[in-house]
Amino acid sequence: MEVTPLTIYLIGLIGKIDAFLAVTTGIGIATCIALFTLYSDAVVSDEKLKLYKHFKLVLIATAVSVFSLITIPSQKTLIAMYVIPTIASSQVVKEIPDVLLDFVKSYVNEELEETIIKVNTK
């Protein structure tokens, strides 16, 4: 799979979708509790029927929201599923010379040793 700007954008939206679903779920649960309280106190049958229809709609919307919240993968999972394999199998990554990798490793080791020396001298 090719990673396009649209893919990156959609993966970025997942965090906002999760937040929206969490808020929707919270509001739905609170509304279900409120409607259930009103439904149990309603005396007139027409009021009970009207509240029951609202309760049922809110309950269904809340159930869909909870199901979506559970089944939609997180940003990290989507990145692991789509972006990392594409980068790992990229020809550009495979063509990085070993000399460059050795240089990077030696540079990181030197920086690490300097940091250790600075920490030990303090």
Automatic annotation (TrEMBL):
<feature type="transmembrane region" description="Helical">
    <location>
        <begin position="20"/>
        <end position="39"/>
    </location>
</feature>
<protein>
    <recommendedName>
        <fullName>Holin</fullName>
    </recommendedName>
</protein>
<keyword id="KW-0472">Membrane</keyword>
<feature type="transmembrane region" description="Helical">
    <location>
        <begin position="51"/>
        <end position="72"/>
    </location>
</feature>
<keyword id="KW-0812">Transmembrane</keyword>
<keyword id="KW-1133">Transmembrane helix</keyword>
